[in-house]
Write a structure and sequence with these properties.
The chain is built from 4 helices and 12 strands, in the order βββββββααβαββββα. By secondary structure, it is of the alpha+beta class.
Length: about 270
């Protein structure tokens, strides 16, 4: 999915759950990032991009065009006697994106150019928390999203098969779980009241599921006999209280969150 300035993202199967590259449609600047190609004149050090974003030259000095066709997008730039073209498309017989980059020197002078590609991979759907990080014993005391992404890439390389196939195999072996999270802004007084309710009075709602254990090491975490859990914890960086749940059925997940919300008056 790309726009006229090469901003956009790549996904496999579903754009909701299987994004391969990142995209922030409501970010500033708009429509960033994308799949970009940078050119650098090694003699002068000047650089620019084939698409108008992210490092386009003024339109008074350069000419940019874009063409969208069936399953492809082509970007062209004519600047400083270099005619550059970048075409993005998906192969018909393989789930891969191909970047076809072509350069032409339209002057009689010999040129020395460097070419750099850019794409920001999206691994925020994996990891131990919303930030996409994993806590690994003996590695780092905090979450490490880069390490999590590296493990995912290594998994794909070692198994030599699509990640979705590996995911389906794990799902068949261990079953499917549905996760949801809801965040609620609170002030200091409300946080104090809820802390007393959860950690001093140790109040728990009626979940409608058999409780296996309750832990207060990091918030209030209830583990169920069916392998699911529900947890309430206060954010360490924002004035928020978070309610998370993971259960074998979507309705069960929603019921756990609703139960905690009713108990806490949220």
């Amino acid at each position: 999915v790309f726009n006229h300035t090469a901003g956009g993202y790549l996904f496999y199967g579903s754009p909701e759950y299987h994004r391969i590259t990142r995209f922030r449609p409501n970010g500033v600047p708009m429509d960033f990032p994308g799949h970009y190609v940078y050119l650098r004149d090694d003699e002068t050090g000047e650089f620019w991009s084939i698409s108008w974003q992210p490092a386009g030259k003024p339109l008074s000095d350069a000419r940019y065009t874009c063409a969208h066709g069936f399953s492809y997008s082509t970007y062209k730039c004519d600047y400083n006697d270099i005619l550059a073209q970048q075409t993005l498309f998906i192969a018909e017989d393989d789930p891969v994106e191909i970047w076809d980059v072509r350069l032409k020197n339209t002057s009689t002078k010999q040129r020395q150019l460097s070419v750099y590609t850019y794409a920001e991979f999206s691994f925020h759907h994996i990891g131990g928390e919303a930030s996409g990080g994993l806590t690994v014993c003996g590695h780092l005391p905090g979450k490490d999203g880069i390490y999590a992404a590296s493990l995912l890439v290594e998994m794909a390389a070692v198994t030599n098969r699509p990640l979705l196939e590996t995911y389906r195999e794990l799902e068949a072996q261990f079953g499917r779980l549905y996760f949801e999270e809801e965040d609620f802004p609170i002030n200091a007084q409300r946080a104090k009241e809820l802390s007393k309710l959860l950690f001093e009075e140790k109040a728990l709602p009626e979940f409608g599921a058999c409780i296996k254990s309750v832990s207060y090491l990091d918030g209030c975490k209830v583990t169920f006999e069916n392998g699911g859990f529900a947890v309430v914890r206060f954010s360490g960086t924002e004035p928020l209280v978070r309610i998370c749940a993971e259960m074998p059925k979507k309705r069960e997940t929603k019921n756990c969150i609703d139960a905690f919300k009713a108990l806490m008056g949220l």
